[in-house]
Amino acid sequence: MAASLTSMDLAAAESTLDPVNILLVDDQPARLLAYRVILGSLNENLVEASSGTEALALLMTREFALILLDVNMPDMDGFEAASLIHQHPRFEKTPIIFVTAINVSDMDRIRGYTLGAVDYVMVPIIPEILRSKVTVLAELYRKRRDLELANAHLAAANESLRIEKSRELEVLNESLRLANIQLEHRNLQLQREGAERERAQQRLIEQDRRKDEFLAMLAHELRNPIASLANAINVFKLGAVRIDPLHEAMQRQLGLLVRLIDDLIDAARISSGKLTLRKAPTTLRAIIESAVETVTPLLDAGTHPLDVQQPAEDIGLDADAERLSQVFSNLLSNAVKYSDIGSPIEIAARATDDSVEISFIDHGIGLGDDQQERIFELFTQVDTAVERARGGLGIGLALARRIVEMHEGQLSVESPGLGRGSCFVVRLPRTDLGEIPMPSSIPAPAIAQSGGQCRVLVVDDNQDAADTLAMMLQLLGHQAHCIYDPRAVVDAVDAFVPDIVFLDIGMPGLSGYDVARNLRAHPGGDSLILVAVTGWGQPEDRRRTAENGFDHHLVKPADLAEIQRICNSFAQRTHDSG
Questions:
Q1: How many of the other CB atoms lie within 10 Å of CB of 61?
Q2: Would you tell me how many other CB atoms lie within 10 Å of the CB of residue 97?
Q3: Secondary structure (DSSP) of 353-400
Q4: Three-state helix/strand/coil letters over 78-102
């Protein structure tokens, strides 16, 4: 122990820090003086006590870094004094160096160490050894005191930090509480805004649905007066001795009106997703020929030379020929409308192994970059004075693109710029001609000569439509009678005994479906030819008329050739059976 203490750095003993208290306990004044002389150079506070009792009294008044305690003292020896000192909680760790003038046994040493002694010093005292031991213990005391002070400061700092963090946490919690309140208010506001947006979206959907229904209803209602006009024009033509140019002009303009109505209906079908196709095997050549035939009057009127380039081989398509012909004729008519008189127009078809590409090229007003995609939107027209002068509803290209896409194809446009023409390109998948037989052309019904007289009953609440259709039938050589009240149909059938009944569907009081069912249930009703005449012409409309007992379905304005075909078919059947 002594060796370990003397090996410590003696520089610590010369520390200029605050002196510590060292208690010197000895009953001999001379030895106390010797302690003071030996330890005086350490500049510590040396406190003397001449007995164990005096030492205990001093310990109660101040703190001591260590105790230098004589073992052999009267009344209370060093061991007893050490025992009493270390029994007190304040001094149980205070180091004690025993000083003895006699040799102590190992048992005495063990007893001393048990009582808290840290070392023994023998008399005569070697000053350097005592000084070194005291210096080390004093320095240890300072370190312990500094550590306790640092711990106290650290504890105070921790407490201050805890208080500060607690305050910050309270502030943060309050901020979070306020933020949560604001967030809750914002969430409620967002929910209200979301609900309002949902309601607005539903209103838009409802308005869009009503718009589609309005367009469909408008188109349907327009067909009734147009049907009367078409019937009247046919009456004029059938009764005329010579062809009147005015009749032809009225026929052309009426055809334009019918096309506009068809566009309105198709626009409603596009928006509602009800546009349907009736695919069948056909050829590209047949569709192009049909489209060109449709647009030929416009080409001739504008003296536009048309150059059609097709592959030498016939290209097979699995398509709705009528709808694709509608697409091609729309692109051709647009080329005519937006080109100067006499400007050439081209159709160029090019085939690959699995597809065909048809380009419709004009040298007209052209398109700007921002217009080349926008023109395919419903009710969108190019905003130029020339465009507005040419009219149109802005439906044709949107309808054309939708029809092409329903054929798993693409419709796009390219234009070098305004005034430099346009090229519309249709890409379609092709079909192997060898897989299925296909018609060589799209058949168009022709007006046949009357094969015999029929008795025809016309039922329509629109008197003009009924009267003009009856007059047209009479000019075709048939006996026709018309009534305007659907509730009087059964009596009229009994009185007139018709062969064919042309029956309007949308009538007040009793629909055409109800009348057809009543007629089929009436005696002799099975032999009647029932023809639905209506403004509705979708596949579901045709299916519904068939389910209610109709034999034919005509869309207003009814085509004269179809009316002639139905009447001639019945007359021929009657002739064959007779």
A1: 7
A2: 20
A3: SSEEEEEEEE-SS---TTHHHHTTSTT----SHHHHHH---S-HHHHH
A4: HHHHHHHHHHCHHHCCCCEEEEECC
Predicted model pTM = 0.52
Q: Is 357 exposed, middle or buried (0-12, 13-18, 19+ CB in 10 A)?
A: middle
Q: Which of 114, 82, 84, 76 is nearest to 98 (CA)?
A: 82
Strand duo 96-100 + 66-70: pairing: parallel
376, 349 Cβ separation under 8 angstroms = no
Contact 571, 453 (CB under 8 A): yes
Per-residue pLDDT of 110-168, as tens digits, reads 776 676 667 778 888 889 988 888 988 888 888 888 888 888 888 888 898 889 988 98
Place of tokens 């590409």: 357
In angstroms and rounded to an integer, the radius of gyration of the C-alpha atoms of the chain is: 58
d(CA 329, CA 325): 6
DSSP 138-167: HHHHHHHHHHHHHHHHHHHHHHHHHHHHHH
Tokens of 154: 């650290």
C-alpha triplet 157, 158, 161: angle, nearest 5°: 85
The single-letter code of the amino acid at 329 is: S
Strands 500-504 vs 529-534: parallel, antiparallel or unpaired = parallel
Tokens of 298: 């416009």
Give me the phi and psi of 504, to 5 degrees please.
Answer: -70, 150
More confident residue, 488 or 231: 488
Within 13 A of 174's CA, how many CA atoms are on the CB side?
6
Amino acid at 576: D
What distance, in Å, lies between the first and last C-alpha atoms of the chain? 148
Amino acid in position 352: T
Q: CB neighbours of 38 closer than 8 A, spacing ≥ 6?
A: 125, 127, 130, 131
- Under the banding of pLDDT at 50, 70 and 90, the label for residue 575 is low
Report the share of the chain in percent with pLDDT over 70. Answer: 83
Reduced to 3 states (helix: H, G, I; strand: E, B; else coil), residue 217 is: helix
Q: How far is CA 512 from CA 223, 224, 527, 543, in A?
A: 17, 15, 18, 14
Helices 127-239, 29-39: crossing angle, 10 deg rounding: 50
